[in-house]
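ARCHIVE CARD
CATEGORY: sequence design from structure
SOURCE FIELD: tokenized fold
FIELD CONTENT:
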């Protein structure tokens, strides 16, 4: 079911301790709390990604202590 909202159960309660998000041309992989919760989504975008927006799913605020962005080199020519 493409285009919907997808969720996964968390193995820990409380605030998320770490979150890693890997985005490429056709997939997104999310690792929460050092891999205790993992999600992979396939997508078929019609344009290049150039923006990231985070939205909490509750009325609580989103408290981000640090963000690091890395470009991963292509493996295909």
């Amino acid at each position: 079911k493409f285009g919907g909202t997808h969720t996964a159960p968390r193995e820990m309660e409380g605030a998320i301790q770490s979150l890693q998000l890997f985005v490429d041309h056709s997939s997104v992989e999310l690792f929460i709390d050092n891999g205790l919760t993992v999600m992979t989504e396939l997508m078929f975008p019609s344009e290049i990604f150039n923006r990231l927006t985070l939205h909490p799913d509750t009325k609580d605020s989103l408290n981000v202590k640090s963000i690091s962005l890395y470009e991963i080199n292509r493996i295909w020519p």
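CARD ANNOTATION: The mean pLDDT is 81. The radius of gyration is 14 Å.
SHELF: design records, drawer C
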